[in-house]
Specification:
The chain contains 4 helices and no strands. By secondary structure, the chain is mainly α.
Length: about 90
């Protein structure tokens, strides 16, 4: 997710998600190019969209933190191995 690529920007991405939901709402209300049949949803669904977008972002950040921790552990192990052979 975007949390992996651009960490520590939760609020910005949440605002982008909310802005997109607003765009969907406006386009549905004016029935722009017939999108109402596809995008018309209740407010509950909009809130769920924002919730799951946030979860996806946090999962990306968690994956990045795990990956960084693993790489640091690998480097430390390699460094210790080099020191033991000297």
């Amino acid at each position: 997710g975007l949390g992996f690529l651009v960490p520590d920007q939760r609020l910005i991405f949440f605002c982008f998600g909310a802005l997109w939901e607003l765009v969907e709402y406006i386009l549905c209300n004016i029935n722009f190019m017939g999108v109402q049949a596809i995008w018309n949803e209740r407010i509950t669904n909009t809130l769920w969209d924002l919730w799951f977008n946030s979860i996806g972002y946090f999962m990306g950040e968690a994956l990045l933190a795990y990956w960084i921790q693993r790489k640091r552990a690998e480097r430390a192990a390699a460094s210790n191995k080099l020191q033991k052979t000297d």
